[in-house]
Amino acid sequence: MNIDYLINELQISLGDTAEHFEVGGDFSVGGRRLIDAALSAYSQHRPRTKPGKLLLVSGQMNYTAPVDLIGFKMSNWGHSAPLWQPNRPRSIPRPTLVGERGSYALCFNQAPSLGHIQCFGREYHYLYYAEQSVNENGDLLLPRTELDLVMLRAQAEAMKELSMHHSNKTVSANNSVASPAKNDKPIYVYQQLMAEFEERIRA
């Protein structure tokens, strides 16, 4: 589904509350920010799985990770060679993440040796977890039921922000797929939306 359509849906669901996120009467920038925050939170529970590849260098422990990597999943590197293969290394280097999100490095617990590379190959193929994101065409490729969860989390993000600046104002959020409209102070609407999100994301 196109991001512009989702932003419009979010604006409609927030009703009059959406005006707090407008810039010069335009909701698109504020709405995109809320949806991006929701996607980041959603991805902690249901990330994408993507392939990655490193070119190993003998004696080198650290390698740059993809920018969208949020977790390492697995690799079969080193497991294809039979145990009885001559000169097969006994231990297989395994990577962990070091650094901060967006600039992670894959750090092996031991540097791959020339023996590792000769036996298992220089190309280290692996799978990693990545955030759900909008593609180059402006589309978010998730099923409708998952998009509803992203929308729910975006509403919660909106209520969280409002609770810091308009704590006593009565606001509303309407998620027609999940539940009837919620009307209350922002912090209470936020808590209700988050409780619903956590319940549904774990279902």
What topology does this entry show?
Blueprint: H1 3-14, H2 28-43, E1 48-55, E2 62-64, E3 69-74, E4 95-98, E5 105-108, H3 114-120, E6 123-130, H4 144-165, E7 171-173, E8 182-184, H5 186-201
Antiparallel strand pairs: 1-6, 2-5, 3-6, 4-5, 7-8
Helix pairs in contact: 1-2, 2-4, 4-5
* Helical content band: 25-40%
Report strand order across the widest sheet.
1-6-3
Output the number of helix runs. Answer: 5
Backbone CA Rg: 23 Å
How many domain regions? 2
Structural class: alpha+beta
- Give the low-pLDDT segments: none
- Tell me the fraction of residues in β-strands, as a range: 15-25%
**Shape call:** elongated
Average pLDDT confidence is: 91
- The H/E string reads HHEEEEEHEHEEH
Task: Note the gap between the termini.
Answer: 23 Å
Q: What's the count of strands?
A: 8
Brief rundown of the structure:
With 203 residues, the protein is of the alpha+beta class. It contains five helices and eight strands. It folds into two domains: 3-45 and 142-201, no CATH class; 48-130, no CATH class.
What this model shows, in words?
This protein has two domains: 103 residues, no CATH class; 83 residues, no CATH class. The protein is elongated. A hairpin with a 6-residue loop joins strand 4 and strand 5. By secondary structure, it is an alpha+beta fold. The chain has five helices and eight strands, in the order ααβββββαβαββα. The strands form three sheets. It has a three-stranded antiparallel sheet with strand order 1-6-3, with no helix packed on it. Strands 2-5-4 form a three-stranded antiparallel sheet, with no helix packed on it.
